[in-house]
Amino acid sequence: MQARHLFILSVLLPAFDICRIRATLFCVAYFLGIDGGATKTYCVLLDRTDRPLGEGRSGPSNYHVVGVEQAGANLSAAIAQALAVSAVAPADVHAACAGMAGFDGPSDQRSVHRILTSALAGCGLLCPWRAVNDAVVAWAGAFHGGPGALIAAGSGAVAFAVGAAGCSARADGLGHWLGDAGSGYDIGRNGLRAALAALDGRGHGTCLTEHFRAIAGRSPEEWIGWIADLDSSIPHAHFQLRSFAPLVAQAAASGDAVALSILNAAGAALAKTTVSVLRKVNLLVAPQVATAGSLLTNSCHLRQAFRATLAGHLPDCQVVPARAGPAHGATLLARNPALMPQDVLQARG
User: Angle formed by the axes of helices 184-200 and 208-216, to 10°?
Assistant: First the structure.
């Protein structure tokens, strides 16, 4: 009987409405959460009880790094994988939310809308969707919609906070040219600069020179060629610089003074970015801060520098574990849009 009713309704109503009616009639509803970053894309499908059913991974979906077409293709690949693993029918996905790195201002809305529309439709999804900056979904996962500040430090770096009154604030996340202080890109670039300064006799000796020689060659002529090749494309340059960050962390772990100073400066920068958003939303009494991204997880020296500077500005600040990751935060916002701070930049479909 339900199938017959759906057939009749399909003649009268658009496909978008049929998708929602089908989910209601059969009491089936799944939610898609997307964490689209500059290094990778990760998405997860959850049911109404937060039970994960499938996940998908692919390459970057920050269109500033890889372009609109490639960002859409990577996003589509991750979604398709999650659907295949879960065996969830596209028509049973009730809503989707995407946190997109590079979605920083109104000028990005058209490109983000194009990427999401193409990727979702290409996977057969006709559900309503929202897209926000990736820091927003990371905050949602960390605090489940409650007050607090989130500092995300991976390839880029951005802080996002929501106050007790529901207002939000963001700091940095301004990209590799002028922002992302303390990010993997920033650390890698400073490590490469330090290595070149040491090789030139302009800076202190550091084992980073050997790491640089290992990737760029043994002679000055090879170094110059390697550096010139950075201009070949933004994705290539971004990869080369951010991929040097783990080598800086490795050098710091061995006691290299130059590498330690780079991580100390990066940790202090991340802490100052965090303090700025806490002040903007007036969360200054025992505020809670959560972290996301690989940098603060993998480097104890960076983490110590971050915590020390944070305590110096706000002694009663608490660094707390995130309750869930960014992709899960995105599913939370897809399922309960009322948790979304109304002053954040969004794209919708």
Answer: 100
Q: How far apart are CA 165 and CA 22, in angstroms?
A: 37
- Whether the CB-CB separation of 140 and 329 falls below 8 Å is answered with yes
Please state, in angstroms and rounded to a whole number, the distance separating the CA atoms of residues 319 and 181.
Answer: 20
Q: Whole-angstrom Cα distance, residue 22 to residue 273?
A: 45
User: pLDDT tens for residues 148-177?
Assistant: 999 999 889 999 999 988 899 999 988 888
| Domains in the chain with CATH codes | 2-140+326-348 (3.30.420.40), 147-322 (3.30.420.40)
Give the Å distances, CA to CA, from 174 to 97, 103, 104, 177: 22, 10, 8, 8
Cβ partners under 8 Å of residue 265, min gap 6: 182, 190, 305
pLDDT tens sequence across 204-253: 999 999 999 999 999 999 999 999 999 998 889 989 999 999 999 999 99
